[in-house]
């Protein structure tokens, strides 16, 4: 059931490294939902765990969203009426709520040291701080009020933990999964406020969602086990009426369908799992991203949207605007979505064919520059791209399919013409090369007619000369129609390549 209040959703990543495609899909579904219902899409940086903070990660997340076309309405880089949008800058907000929970009896101070808890975990491998163990530990439930005050007064380090109720069933309506139940006996007393005064995710996410008036929470299903904690915090602090609606998204699975897709899987199987290149500032190691591998953002977003959702029509190619129009929570799958890199490449191939080449001209130029291939002018490059785009799956394929337009072949695949080459063919090519001087205008059809005339003089067929001509111009058995290649190369370059190749062919013969 759709809420009557303003739709406000948030993407809340932690700045700890590269942005996994699962994270981008979460952002995408939030974005689509907000746009579909004329709501707001908010970016919030959840950096309460300072031990995991990585410099540059926040800027990287923002760049990834920009590349995908997922522009937030509010966020740390653009501001908004509910800022600040970094949790580390909201530190003073959370403590009051944690202490309020203690006063209400829903949370308690725990003075156990990390060393004491570690010793317990060694003794009991499945140790949990919960209703069955809290009575034997050092906390404000077992200590006298006087002892607690003494500890607090002397500045002894403590954490604040939620006091999970016993024998209670917590129910939520999940927009994807329907009714979901949780047994509170299975949930431990999560830390809400750490010893350094920073909140944990559990407290911060609830407080921020309330203060930022979040109406719907879309997040990965790995957060389902934490949901009972969050539901109780909502009830204790703000009441059920303000609670957002929940939607837990299915996992993105490995290609074999077994387990969640990880960076390790990508490394092992040779495909990216990050949206863009991520360079670890500590190790200097760069992990390849979809953008740098040659994916268009339109294809990446299109592919991600269909990893766990479809509109039921069978349509597979969608623009971002079409996705906004068609998107609905009801069509999100409950089960995990298997990642298929071949299918991802198919999406990219389709988008390369559909988009005007000017749209990705600058990205392709980057690939040419990386290979030190000199480019003359944009107009020629766009004509080349138009001619070969049907053959390209990734943007980098334009190099292999098109570099010979800018760099003459250094070697020739002579093995494929060896049996057919003859003195008559040599003579036909020599005559045709001279005849090309007179071809005007320099167009594929006129170039072809000149070749037919030269072939007939030597009693050869046009088809006999096509493969040798391709080897002369390209170096190998590939490329678009050969007379279109000659037209694009221009008269001077075409004649030069033929003359050079004839010398090499005669030596070989």
TrEMBL record:
Its main location: cytoplasm. InterPro entries: aa-tRNA-synth_I_cd-bd, aa-tRNA-synth_I_codon-bd_sub2, aa-tRNA-synth_I_CS, aa_tRNA-synth_I_cd-bd_sf, Glu-tRNA-ligase_bac/mito, Glu-tRNA-synth_I_codon-bd_sub1, Glu/Gln-tRNA-synth, Glu/Gln-tRNA-synth_Ib_cat-dom. Coiled coil: none annotated. SUPFAM superfamilies: An anticodon-binding domain of class I aminoacyl-tRNA synthetases, Nucleotidylyl transferase. Residues 6-346 form the Glutamyl/glutaminyl-tRNA synthetase class Ib catalytic domain. Residues 368-502 form the Aminoacyl-tRNA synthetase class I anticodon-binding domain. A motif ('HIGH' region) lies at residues 13-23. Keywords: Aminoacyl-tRNA synthetase, ATP-binding, Cytoplasm, Ligase, Nucleotide-binding, Protein biosynthesis. Its EC number is 6.1.1.17. It catalyses: tRNA(Glu) + L-glutamate + ATP = L-glutamyl-tRNA(Glu) + AMP + diphosphate. A motif ('KMSKS' region) lies at residues 260-264. It is found in: Cytoplasm. ATP binds at residue 263. GO terms for cellular component: cytosol. PANTHER family: GLUTAMATE--TRNA LIGASE, GLUTAMATE--TRNA LIGASE, MITOCHONDRIAL-RELATED. Catalyzes the attachment of glutamate to tRNA(Glu) in a two-step reaction: glutamate is first activated by ATP to form Glu-AMP and then transferred to the acceptor end of tRNA(Glu). Monomer. Belongs to the class-I aminoacyl-tRNA synthetase family. Glutamate--tRNA ligase type 1 subfamily. This is Glutamate--tRNA ligase. It comes from Thermoflavifilum thermophilum.
